[in-house]
Amino acid sequence: MKPTSHVHRLRTGAVVLALSLSLAACGNSGSDSQNDAANSAHAAASASKSAASASNDAVVNSRAGVAVSTGISQAASFGFNTARGATAEELAELRKPPTDAMKGVNVIPDTCKQSVEDLNWSPAQSSDEAARTDFAQNSTIVTGSVEVAKLQDEKSFAAYQAAVENLQTTCRSISLSIVSEKSADTYPFTAVKPATKADSSADGKVDSAILWTRGRMDQDIRQQSLVLVGQKDGYVAMVSFVGLDKITDKQFTEMAQAILKATLAGL
Question: What average pLDDT score do residues 183-200 get?
Answer without folding.
Answer: 93
